[in-house]
From TrEMBL:
Residues 667-770 form the Thiol:disulfide interchange protein DsbD N-terminal domain. Pfam families: DsbD_N (PF11412), Thioredox_DsbH (PF03190). Residues 548-574 are annotated as: Disordered. InterPro entries: 6-hairpin_glycosidase_sf (IPR008928), DsbDN (IPR028250), DsbDN_sf (IPR036929), Ssp411 (IPR024705), Ssp411-like_TRX (IPR004879), Thioredoxin-like_sf (IPR036249). Residues 24-185 form the Spermatogenesis-associated protein 20-like TRX domain. The keyword Aminoacyl-tRNA synthetase does not apply. This is DUF255 domain-containing protein.
Amino acid sequence: MTRLQAWLWPLVLLAMAGGPAVAENRLAATASDYLRDHADNPVDWYPWGEQALALAREQDKPIFVSVGYSTCYWCHVAKRELYEDPEIAAAMNEGFVNIKIDREQRPDLDRVLMAATRALGEGGGWPNNVFLTPDLEPFFAGSYFPPEPLPGRESFPQLLERLSDQWQSNREPLLERAEATAEALREGADTSLAPERIDPTDWRARAIKALEDQFDPLVGGFAPPGQSSRFPQSPRLALLLSALDGDDQAARAEPMLRQTLAAMSIGALFDHVGGGFHRYTVDPEWAIPHFEKMLVDNAQLIGHYARAGQRLDEDWFGDVAARSVGYLERRLWADEGSYFTAENAELDGIEGKSYVFTAEEIRAVLGEDAEAFLDWHQLAGLPESRIDHELPDGGAVNLAVGRALDAFERGELAESIAGFEPDYAALLEARQARGLPQRDRKQVAEFNALAGLGLLAAAQPLDRGDWHERAQAVGDWLWTRLWDADAQRLSRQVYEGQVSGEAFLSDHAAAGRLMLALYGTSHDIGWLFRAQRLAATIERDYLDESGRLHERPPQAAGGLPLSPPLTGDDASPSGHSQAVVFLLDLGAVLEDPARQARAVRALAGFAAQVDAAPADWGFLVGALARSSRAEVVTREAARLTEATQATVATGGPGETRDHVGVEARVAEGGAAILVRLVIDEGFHINANPASEDFLVPTRVKAVDGEIGTIDYPQGKAFRAEFARSAIDVYEGVIELRVPVTGGMPTRLLLDLQACDDEVCLAPDEVEVAVDQGGE
């Protein structure tokens, strides 16, 4: 290569990759450290939005969506290995419209895309990379793609070339797979449950039995057979804590809770030197952490440890809570009444470099005190990387398991470890001299509200009035910085001093819970006023006409054409769970049974999923099973049942099929079937397409035989008095022409949802025989 060629070659690669990155990359001005971290990539990234989606339609290109978050280690690896490579970027820019999403800004998109990945046969994890058609249907997905081929795995460049070529030359298999995947995600099971079957006490008993089946009796924690990683699973710990107050379940819950909390805090999931908890461990013994630290985990664990310490008379748990609050104050406090979101796992591109020590380093820092420290602590070596990434020199600091457990069983662990506080401080100073991991500087409403609730839960048992003041500061920050008085709703976050982002049900429900809890501890009526305003927003924006909850306002734009699946109380309580508990509790404080009835109706809308796997809804089940709430839920569920039965008995709404008559007959010499719908006066059914994604469109399917595409008639605009906008409906008598494209069907299935001026009935599937007698 000549000197001139050597000078020109970087410019050629830059042109291939889509032009100047720093000046033009669309992620540079976003309110996300994760997105900005990709701002100087040669990839022509877009944030999620209509600009990118329109470009994909206009250029007829598939969409590559990569979802991650700032403290995701493998997301950083992908950035270095893939997106900073000019040749890979050129292939991405040529064949795809490329979108980056911060999952903490758009949890709705994250959940839909993760469901798509699993539907496509992949295990999931972040980064989550999904290839979509321009119509937003997924056809391929995966997590880490290597830059070079590995045994049994194609490289990312090979994958890009294969999918791009197939899209251009033979896309039908991709489109068929995309349509099948999207249809599977759309169908989903009905998650409603008749109110009379809602039983929080039974749910908790079955949940604890399920946890017993998953419990690891050797090292604590819960995991299916064969899973090596261990997560704190805070909602499940909340469930066990709630059971301590019930005589029938306490004996089963207490050993699991005690052992799990002890194992997590003796192992290196807990940062013994600096306080706070890491995200998870890569081994079942809690010894080798994945080193990122997240506010959402620590927010919940500080309350769990403090409450368990009081309830189980265990000082060690109280010490762990206090040191975790100390970590939040030192590293995540944002100096304006809120907390940053997380802290990275890596330093200088090496995971764990901030945290590990060698025995020699410990001796150099502690001098003559080192041997006593090493007698009580052990250093767990990090496993070799499966793709040969650089490891830090040293091991993760654990307590010596046998010695620590013996002391714990004698009730002496807190006292035994107290003498190492000066050593921890010295090691922390040495550790910080290496440099500090980057923090995710988003200040998110939901996570901060959970932090405020955790501080309140810990303040009382540990007699820490300063933590109560911190919780009040978080509550004030949420209201003064994120509450929009004109729109009567929250924003999602503050980033670099700027408020931005759409808030979700989880933001409003968690903030509402915090406001109500602050009222309960201070009796300041201002907090109750704020809680009422948040409840009104939930009821206005996130409850639909049938009483079901939605993560986003049903009419909001900017999502995928699929509803986010409910995943239970996973790493933190779901928005659905928090909203039900918040509305129940606020109704109790205000002596407002109507609000409590709305909460139970909302619960009924997804209770079938809770009933099927109550252990997956640990926060909700534990909260509802507490005696005061269980009594209210049982009472309001009975009232709802009585009201429904009375309505049916008096000729009221009943079921959809009660108000829509259906006939079908062969027509046009067998070329078509005519379906006649007779809708009761005062009722209507949804047009096709439905005006909102939470409404079920009228739809005809064949049980047997083959039918073609139906040209559904235009709906009539209808607007109920309580609705903010009109929807398209069918009223009176409607005839649908169903073309026959193969064998003549003998039976048809119709998806229908009937509504009147006051309520939408549950969706119904009506089967009708086809009259073969002809015209």
